[in-house]
Amino acid sequence: MKSHLSILLESDTNELELLEFSVDHGATPGYFGVNVAKVREIVRMPDITRIALSPEGIAGTMTRRGKIIPVINLARVLGSEPPRKADRVIILEFNQVTVGIMVGAVSSVHRLSWGEIEAPPTTGAGLYIIALVKMEERIILMLDFERILADIFDGGTVKPMTLPHGNPLKNGERTILFVDDSSFIRSTIGALLRQAGFRVKEAVNGEDAWRIIQESVEIAPLDIDIVITDVEMPRMDGLHLISLIKKESRFSGVPLFIFSSLASDDNKRKWKNVGADGIITKADLPRLLQILDEAFNVIG
Predict the structure, then answer these.
(1) pTM score, two decimals?
(2) In CATH, what number is assigned to the domain containing residue 92?
(3) Which of 138, 145, 192, 295 is the most buried (most CB within 10 A)?
């Protein structure tokens, strides 16, 4: 699995490996999936230490390899209380955070094209549903774990930027295309960039971003100065988007940044080999404007 995953994360195959698991909703299970790239390990239900006054949705903590890990009661977060106890805990790692999620069962790993992953209907009931994939007899839902953590810990996964000391009108001359399938991330980062004076265009996935870029050059020169893209997105992932942009010489002067919760040191190296000019992580957000300013100084 690790070697296949390495290939998927360093190339523009536009593929992912999806770990399928179930969470009981009353008498029937719900089927969910998470990118294998976020999965550290899967363990049988351990002893959970309950913590007084812990946030809603936190079942308690577990200890694994000497590390204390918060454990999320996923069924409760999704609005139900299953009749049976969870059987497994999937330990996830992203945005430099390690967390366990309680699930009913873990079934299999599917290797899929992002083209097979669909955006969900825009309904209030699917607050945490970020994408879905239709299988023969069921629908697997992909959850926005960044938003789940942010809601549990009062926005703890996104930190504010340091606002510029310079003239914000200068930023107003620059346009950033921000690409992310999470409405939570788009609205949060988009608002911060607009507050700093930038013009911001938003795209929900790589396919949408490529359409915006193509349409913008049909009648005029490209009016996008920087592209910031997530990696994991339905229809077309960020690595394939970067590959498409890099293949077009007319876009050669546009800096391409990846903003991802999967930005380990190894992935950063691989993504730069694909063509990314820079990698932005959660920890970089307070100095995001400085990073963008440095990029603008390079392109003039």
Answers:
(1) 0.78
(2) 2.40.50.180
(3) 145
How far, in Å, are 103, 122, 145, 152, 277 from residue 125 at the CA level? 20, 9, 16, 18, 38
| pLDDT value at residue 2 | 47
- State how many domains the chain has: 2
Segments of the chain with pLDDT less than 50: 1-9, 124-125, 156-157, 165, 167, 169
Q: How remote is the C-alpha of 166 from its chain's centroid? A: 31
Total Cβ atoms within 10 A of residue 242: 23
Do 88 and 148 fall within a single domain?
yes
| Dihedral of alpha carbons 98, 99, 104, 109, sign | negative
Mark whether 137 and 47 lie in a shared domain.
yes
The token duo for 58 is 């936190």
CB-based burial label for 263 (10 Å; 0-12, 13-18, 19+): buried
Q: So what's the pLDDT on residue 125?
A: 43
Q: Supply the pLDDT for residue 1.
A: 43
Question: Is 78 within 8 Å of 25 (Cβ atoms)?
Answer: yes
